[in-house]
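Support request, please re-run this one:
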Amino acid sequence: MAELHEHPRPIQLSDLPAAPVPRGRRPRAARALRRITLARTGRQRLAVPARGHRARRLALPRQAPAPVLVPLGQPVPQTPDHIGLASGSSERRPVVKKSGLIGAFAVLLAAGLLLSGCSATPTTPVADAHSDSVALQNDLQYGTARGQKLLLNACLPKGKKSPIAAMILIHGGGFDSGTKDFGGMTALCSELADGGIAAFSVDYRLAPKFAYPAQVNDVTDALEWLRDPAQVAQFGIDPERIGLFGSSAGAIIAASIGTNGTGSLTSGDRVAAVVAMSPAVDLTENGLLLGDPSKTAVASILQYLGCSNFTDCPNSREASPLYSVDKTDPPFYIAISKKELVPVEQGEAMALALKAVGVPVTLDVKPGKRHALELLDETTRASIRQFLIDNLVNSSSRTD
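Re-run finished. Output below.
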């Protein structure tokens, strides 16, 4: 179970080029609601857990300066700790599956979410971070839910030939705090665009006022909004190559959307690739048996689910990405630490479930206690960069 709050730590990522692959749209008021409970799916349950830029140097606190990254397009060296596993809001409900389950380094971040999740002050993205290569469009409205405007920031690469791949960035904060401007998402947005991928950092409704599935629905709305022809033309993106990057609480949302629906990854609410930093994937009572989740994490998950306990929480299984994995899901990159706030067993269970059905997955287990965006050291950034090159930028469509 995850401790779902970001940490105030400088982080940066590498650059990417631009160069095809992406849950059926949830019905709105005018359409019939299509909800299929897991009890009716008849699927087999998995046993858990058995189941042209110049790269610049980055110096992290108390660490030696990181080496220059491998030039774009060249293979990223594997490292010993990089393990690849080869191939209360109820106005809308997510569709449950019918079958079984990211060099430029110029930005240093001083603000992020504290463990309390409440006392940090958001910072607004600044246009001078990569002013020669990135165009920023802040506070764009992608939707409205219960009278609340839903906003995102767009970071767009300059001078890139359309269409380009895109990533949606989903912040953490324990589901009850954080914004699109918080912490690492500001840097990620700009740095991805500097590398040639259009990036969109999104806001979503927060708990406790809004509970699952509000957060998943909001980010899915952002995905579908981006796929609308008007936005495709405006941003010059390829609607068939959109991925998700989620951190902590955002990683749960990203994994939920990534495993929702079946079939082609190129349309609707399906995505081409998922990067999940410290995700909790089993939110059920059984999930508490995976490692040793903290009391704060458990409380955050219950608040997200709109429940007072796991015994009487009908949303818990439906909201758990682990139980929605199937063979049509997109490639996953899962980063997690051995002794962090999210039990490593959560990441391992997800990787095993994906591998069992033939979905490409990379499980990157790090030593120590770093959580979510703290995991973005040199090695991890390089690995994520290669993952996105292989599975988003240069990918071919999967329709199985």
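The domain at 47-393 is CATH 3.40.50.1820 (Rossmann fold). Residues 44 and 348 are 19 Å apart (CA to CA).
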